[in-house]
Amino acid sequence: MQNMTTELTAVMQKPLRPVGEIKISCDIIDVSAAREAVLSSNDSLYYSDAQHIVTENAAPKAITATLEPMHFKADGTRLVAPTASESVKANEGYISNNICGANGSFQTPPYVAVSFTAVHTVETLTLVFDAVSGVYPSKLRITAKNGAATVLEREYYPASASFITGDKLTDFDCIKIEFITMSLPYTRARLQQLMLGYATQFDGDMLGEVTCKWKLDPIMRRLPETALTFEVENSGDAYDPDNPDSLWKYLEQPCPVTAHYGMPCGADGAAQWVSLGRYYLTGQPQVSDIFVTLKAGSVLDLLTDICTIDTETTASRSLYMAAQNILDGAGISTLYSGGTQRVLWDGLKNITTTAPMPKKPYRECLQYIAHAAGCALYTDRDGALCIMPVSTQPNSLYMDFDTLLQKPTVTKTAALSRVVCKVYTYASATQASTHTVTAAVQNAEPGAAEETIDNPLITSDAVALAAAQRVRDYLLFRNVYACEYRGLPAMEAGDIISLQSRVADSVTVRIAEHSLSFGNGISGKFTAKETEASS
């Protein structure tokens, strides 16, 4: 369950809610260029780290404290600098070593150069210099080249810490950004972010239908699903592929997208917002006369390449190390520009495997790891990839007939007789044998089904028995509830809530699938599975 303020929670529970609003932000960037960019500079501080600035829209929320003007404050936004011997890089982009003079100019202008292996064209450049302190260059020079030929050379005069050049760059393979003068004397040049494009926001009348959908199987028989579908007004054929000046080529790339839902609260009527998630465009937009329909998914939808990491080893290693190796090998760090990229349960360090990693898509290998550890694989609302134990504690949410639009529809899953789990033994990366471990069901119904677990990373009887028992305990509860309700943006797949059923005042259920629709108001649907006996 996402956190909501007390005021927003109270407003969401009112019989008559105020009209809410949704906003969707999309980074219209050349993702392929960002991934191949190589950065260099002529003058950088020892903890400067420029390599990761050419990615998404996520400047740091804190910077390292120095004695420069505006950079030494005790307000929680300043960090202690690492020592030179620590060899630690700060997550705040490029920082020059030299400081400008009293007139804001440098003796030798520091610069950042970005080179690419292919030729690219972008609509504009967006630069974030120092979003925390507000210091920026009052004059800079940008040069773009294609080989030895100059494509663009121009001086700009920013007036804030965020600046959009407004010039289209055509057919370039190198960009050079020179800091001529700074807005404050005795400060360093900083570049926290360089977007090869720009960020745009869709809201209000620009949006048509918007739907969000989340699915999570807590015993990891299936990959999780996270999806956002939204309609954007196609005014001026801005997104039409038949228009040579349209933004179509960017919509076919996995550009990052964030969505938020807000509702007016308090006396001033200001909106308070709940994150609906961080997504990536999945390509194949659909254009009609009025709208372009865009679809986006989680970072897991991008990890479809076949795993080449640890596929030939039978050495014992922890599932934590295995997950880290896969995430590094999949290049997940190139899909983010800051913040938490991954959240891995510490308990993975205590579970080992001797199995070579299957030659499957990276995301399926992560699913195997989560399954073997009794965890769930999912992405949180900030877009971080998580392998964590599923929640076992109900939250305070209670869905009664006043919240539901109609009484739940109830079905039952098949009865269970036992759960059988294979245990793999590897003589080499290509030779394996198996035996099984069983978790039986007491007093199983006649004709009940058998569930088989086949996870090539399970190489010990203890891990196999724990997996079989988890699956058995989950499948023994068979009631499944399909509900339509008023919609609550904070609710997530995997949440445990209380639900009024047709015959019971309260049933404890786990949300398996949740969808929200935003058109004329907000409405929701969810499917939930009983987790304990009705009361």
Notable traits:
globular; 5-stranded antiparallel beta sheet; single chain; Jelly Rolls; 535 residues; 6 helices; 14-stranded mixed beta sheet
Fold topology:
Elements: H1 6-12, E1 21-29, H2 31-36, E2 38-41, E3 63-64, E4 78-79, E5 94-99, E6 111-122, E7 126-128, E8 137-146, E9 149-156, E10 162-164, E11 169-182, E12 188-191, E13 193-195, E14 197-203, E15 207-215, E16 225-233, H3 248-251, E17 256-264, E18 271-281, E19 286-287, E20 291-297, E21 317-318, H4 319-329, E22 342-344, E23 352-353, H5 362-373, E24 375-379, E25 385-389, E26 398-399, E27 409-412, E28 416-426, E29 432-440, E30 449-453, H6 461-475, E31 479-485, E32 496-499, E33 507-519, E34 521-530
Parallel strand pairs: 3-4, 22-25, 26-32, 28-30
Antiparallel strand pairs: 1-14, 1-17, 2-6, 5-12, 6-11, 7-10, 7-13, 8-9, 8-11, 15-16, 15-33, 16-20, 17-18, 18-20, 19-20, 21-23, 24-25, 27-31, 28-29, 31-34, 32-33, 33-34
How does this model look, in words?
The protein is mainly beta and 535 residues long. Among the domains are: 31-195, Jelly Rolls, CATH 2.60.120.260; 317-389, 3-Layer(bab) Sandwich (Phage tail protein beta-alpha-beta fold), CATH 3.55.50; 415-476. It has six helices and 34 strands. The protein has helices at 6-12, 31-36, 248-251, 319-329, 362-373, 461-475, and strands spanning 21-29, 38-41, 63-64, 78-79, 94-99, 111-122, 126-128, 137-146, 149-156, 162-164, 169-182, 188-191, 193-195, 197-203, 207-215, 225-233, 256-264, 271-281, 286-287, 291-297, 317-318, 342-344, 352-353, 375-379, 385-389, 398-399, 409-412, 416-426, 432-440, 449-453, 479-485, 496-499, 507-519, 521-530. Strands 1, 14, 15, 16, 17, 18, 19, 20, 26, 27, 31, 32, 33 and 34 form a 14-stranded mixed beta sheet that branches. A five-stranded antiparallel beta sheet has the order 2-6-11-8-9, with no helix packed on it. A hairpin with a 3-residue loop joins β19 and β20. α4 runs antiparallel to α5 (362-373). The longest helix has 15 residues, at 461-475. The two termini are 23 Å apart. The mean pLDDT is 88.
